[in-house]
C-alpha cells in the first residue's frame, strides 16, 4: 500500500497599500488595514511550510466496537453510573464517519494526506519511518486519520525487560504493544524544546523531557493509541488488559472496569512527569490530581491492521469532559487557531517501548473555521465596525462644517 506525501499549506500575510493623499483616504486606509488583517492575528505565532490543516467538514463521528456495535446507535454508556444502555436508537447518515480504522467513508477521500517523517528516538529506535495524517473538524470536534507501515500487528504487552546496552529485550514471543502518539503543546507560544513521548504512565520521566531546563513550565497533552489497551482487537476487550480489572477510586471504586468504546489514552506531560488521565487503574493520576475524578475516554479511536499497514481513526470534542477541564490537564481546541503538534510511533515487535521508537519534529496545525463563519475574529469585527462608524461620523462632521462655512460665507457676502 502506498502512503502518499503532500506538503502542507503556507499561510501568506495579506498586504495592504494605503493611500494617504488626504484625510479621507487616510481614514479609509486605516480602516482597510484593520479589516484585512489576517484571521490568524489571534495566534501567538506564525505558521510554517510544514503546517497541517484540519479542514472544515459537515460531519460527525460514531465509534464502532466489535463487541457491542456502534456507540450511540446500538448502545450508550453513562459515565456517572458506570452503566450501559442497549439500543438507544441513534442514527447514522451520510455525514457520519464510523470510527473503525477503515477510512471507507467518502468524506475522507476529500482530504489529502500529509506524510510526516519520523526519526529514531535512540540508536535502537526508528522502526517506523513515517506516518500519514489526515485531519478535519466540524466546529466542535476534531477528526484525524493515520496510516503507518508495520509488518506485524502487536496487540500484546510483555513485561518490560531492559537490556544493559539500552533499549528493551525482545524476540518472536516476547514483545510489546504497537503505539501511536499525538502530542499537543498546551502553551500559547512555540515549544522551547524538542518533542518527547513515553508509552507508560511512569510518573517521573527521569529528567528526559527536552524542555525541562529551557521551559520548566512547559506542558503537553499526549494522545496515545495503545493497541494492547484501547483497541477492540485486544485479547481482553472490553475489559482492561491489566489487573485488577476494577476501578480503584472515584465514584465507581470496586466496580468492574469495562471500557465504553475503543479509545486513546491521554496523559499530561510536563517537564518532570507524565500523568495519566486515569481509569482508576494506575496510581499516577491519583498522585497528579488528588481527589480529582478524571474522564479517560475523551479521545474516541479505533485501529485496524491489514497487509502490513496500521490505520487509525480518532474523534475528540474540542472541549474536554467537564471533569478534565477542572484539572487543566488536557487541551481545549478552537476553530480558526493554530497549535503546535508532534507525532510518534513505536513497533512492539522490534522491542520499542517507553520512550524508544520514532518521533517527529514540532509541526503546526490550523483548525479551519466553517466557510459560513466570520473570516475574522469577533473582536476584530467589532473593532472594524467601530472604525467604520468613526469614518462615517468624521466625514459627516466635515461635510456639516463645510456646509456651515458656505452658509456663513454667503450671508457675509
Summarize the structure.
It is built from four helices and 20 strands.
Key terms:
ten-stranded mixed beta barrel; alpha+beta; globular; 14% helix; disordered N terminus; 20 strands; Immunoglobulin-like; three-stranded mixed beta sheet; 413 residues
Low-confidence stretches: 1-50
Percent range for β-strand residues: 25-35%
Output the CATH class name.
Mainly Beta
Overall average pLDDT: 81
List strands and helices in order, with pairings.
Blueprint lengths: L22 H13 L16 E5 L3 E6 L3 E2 L4 E4 L4 E4 L9 E4 L14 E4 L1 E2 L9 E8 L3 E9 L29 E7 L17 E2 L14 E8 L36 E8 L2 E4 L7 H5 L10 E8 L2 E9 L4 H4 L11 E10 L11 E2 L3 E5 L10 H35 L1
Parallel strand pairs: 1-9, 1-20, 2-6
Antiparallel strand pairs: 2-3, 4-5, 7-9, 8-19, 9-10, 10-17, 11-13, 11-18, 12-15, 13-14, 14-15, 14-16, 16-17, 18-19, 18-20
Helix pairs in contact: 1-4
Amino acid at each position: 500500500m502506498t502512503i502518499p506525501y503532500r506538503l502542507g499549506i503556507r499561510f501568506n500575510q495579506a498586504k495592504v497599500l494605503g493611500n494617504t493623499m488626504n484625510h479621507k483616504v487616510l481614514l479609509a486606509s486605516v480602516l482597510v488595514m484593520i479589516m484585512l488583517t489576517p484571521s490568524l492575528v489571534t495566534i501567538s505565532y506564525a505558521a510554517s511550510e510544514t503546517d497541517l490543516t484540519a479542514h472544515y467538514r459537515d460531519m460527525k463521528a460514531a465509534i464502532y466496537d466489535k463487541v457491542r456495535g456502534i456507540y450511540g446507535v446500538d448502545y450508550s454508556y453513562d459515565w456517572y453510573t458506570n452503566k450501559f444502555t442497549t439500543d438507544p436508537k441513534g442514527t447514522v447518515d451520510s455525514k457520519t464517519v464510523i470510527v473503525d480504522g477503515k477510512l471507507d467513508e467518502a468524506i475522507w477521500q476529500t482530504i489529502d494526506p500529509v506524510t510526516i517523517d519520523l526519526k529514531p528516538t535512540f540508536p535502537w529506535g526508528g522502526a517506523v519511518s513515517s506516518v500519514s495524517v489526515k485531519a478535519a473538524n466540524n466546529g466542535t470536534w476534531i477528526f484525524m486519520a493515520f496510516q503507518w507501515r508495520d509488518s506485524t500487528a502487536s496487540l500484546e504487552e510483555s513485561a518490560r525487560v531492559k537490556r544493559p546496552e539500552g533499549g528493551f529485550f525482545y524476540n518472536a514471543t516476547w514483545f510489546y504493544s504497537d503505539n501511536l502518539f499525538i502530542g499537543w503543546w498546551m502553551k500559547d507560544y512555540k515549544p522551547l524544546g524538542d518533542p518527547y513521548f513515553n508509552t507508560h504512565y511512569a510518573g517521573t520521566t527521569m529528567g528526559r523531557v527536552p524542555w525541562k531546563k529551557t521551559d520548566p513550565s512547559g506542558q503537553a497533552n499526549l494522545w496515545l493509541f495503545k493497541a494492547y489497551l484501547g483497541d477492540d482487537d485486544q485479547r481482553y476487550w472490553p475489559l482492561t488488559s491489566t489487573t485488577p480489572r476494577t476501578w480503584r477510586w472515584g465514584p465507581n471504586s470496586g466496580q468492574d472496569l469495562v471500557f465504553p468504546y475503543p479509545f486513546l489514552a491521554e496523559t499530561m506531560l510536563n517537564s518532570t512527569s507524565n500523568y495519566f488521565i486515569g481509569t482508576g487503574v494506575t496510581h499516577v493520576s491519583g498522585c497528579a490530581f488528588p481527589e480529582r475524578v478524571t474522564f479517560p475516554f475523551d479521545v474516541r479511536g479505533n485501529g485496524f491492521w491489514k497487509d502490513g499497514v496500521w490505520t487509525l481513526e480518532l474523534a475528540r470534542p474540542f472541549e474536554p469532559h467537564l471533569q478534565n477541564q477542572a484539572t487543566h490537564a488536557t487541551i481545549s481546541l478552537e476553530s480558526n487557531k493554530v497549535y503546535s503538534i508532534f507525532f510518534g510511533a513505536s513497533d512492539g515487535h522490534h522491542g520499542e517501548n517507553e520512550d524508544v521508537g520514532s518521533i517527529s519534529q514540532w509541526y503546526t496545525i490550523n483548525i479551519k473555521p466553517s466557510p459560513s463563519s466570520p473570516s475574522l475574529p469577533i473582536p476584530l469585527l467589532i473593532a472594524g465596525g467601530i472604525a467604520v462608524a468613526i469614518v462615517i461620523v468624521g466625514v459627516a462632521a466635515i461635510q456639516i462644517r463645510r456646509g456651515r462655512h458656505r452658509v456663513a460665507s454667503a450671508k457675509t457676502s
